[in-house]
Design a protein that fits this description.
3 helices, alpha+beta, single chain
């Protein structure tokens, strides 16, 4: 019986939180209503200027980008992505996260 070795996606890819690649004006325009809601209703107002990005180890190619996270969401998403990179193969990771 042959033994198949599982190579995790983290052997090829890495994840990090980075400032959003969207134009700052777009981020600002989407942020202002949440600030107004926070003022009126006491919720929201977080700056959504952080993306979680999965790239090849050498950084040459982007594999996945999760856009528009506040810092807390980005930290949570980054933990999940890194855990899945360690747990899943490349194909399984792409299926799990819906990346192409």
């Amino acid at each position: 019986m042959a033994c198949v070795t599982h190579v995790p996606a983290s052997a090829f890819w890495r994840a990090e939180a980075v400032p959003t690649s969207r134009p700052k004006a777009v981020v600002l325009l989407r942020w202002l209503p949440s600030v107004a809601a926070a003022f009126l209703f006491g919720a929201g107002g977080e700056w959504r200027g952080t993306d979680v990005v999965v790239t090849t180890i050498d950084g040459d190619r982007e594999v996945l980008r999760l856009s528009g996270k506040d810092v807390g969401e980005a930290g949570d998403a980054l933990q999940l992505v890194r855990a899945d990179l360690d747990r899943l193969s490349q194909d399984d990771f792409l299926r799990e996260w819906g990346a192409t």
